[in-house]
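Most newcomers find our protein records easier to grasp once they have seen one. A learned vocabulary of local backbone shapes supplies the integers on the structure line. Here is such a record, shown just as it appears in the course material:
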Amino acid sequence: MNPETFQLLDKVIHEKSRMAIMSMLAASAELSFTELRDALAMTDGNVTTHIRTLQKAGYVAVAKSFQDKRPLTTCRLTTVGREAFCEYVGLLEGIVKSAKQSEEKSNPAKASKSRRKKSNDNTNFALQSQRA
């Protein structure tokens, strides 16, 4: 495993709350402030602070409007934010893949057992899908 890979991880996204916000926004066109706050069980202040950090980095765009005469704040990923998130996820996938390969090299018996279990899980899933 190359330790320099960890230095490439985007520190703005890496904080768990910001990563959660980015993940939720990556899966939706936009979300309201309330939806983010409630889904992540965060306080208004925490969501505001993390959204501002993501906004300063250019990763999130915030829009304010009214819905049923009530203020509505919505957030969405910018193009730059979506690209940064995809790059971040790609780096994490590479780290996990590298860690798994290192584990297989250091403990081939355990890796073989893990592959068999994974194969059985996939077979069971395929059988269940056919029955459904």
Summary: The mean pLDDT is 89. Helices lie at 4-7, 11-14, 16-26, 33-40, 44-56, 79-106, 108-131. The first helix runs from residue 4 to 7.
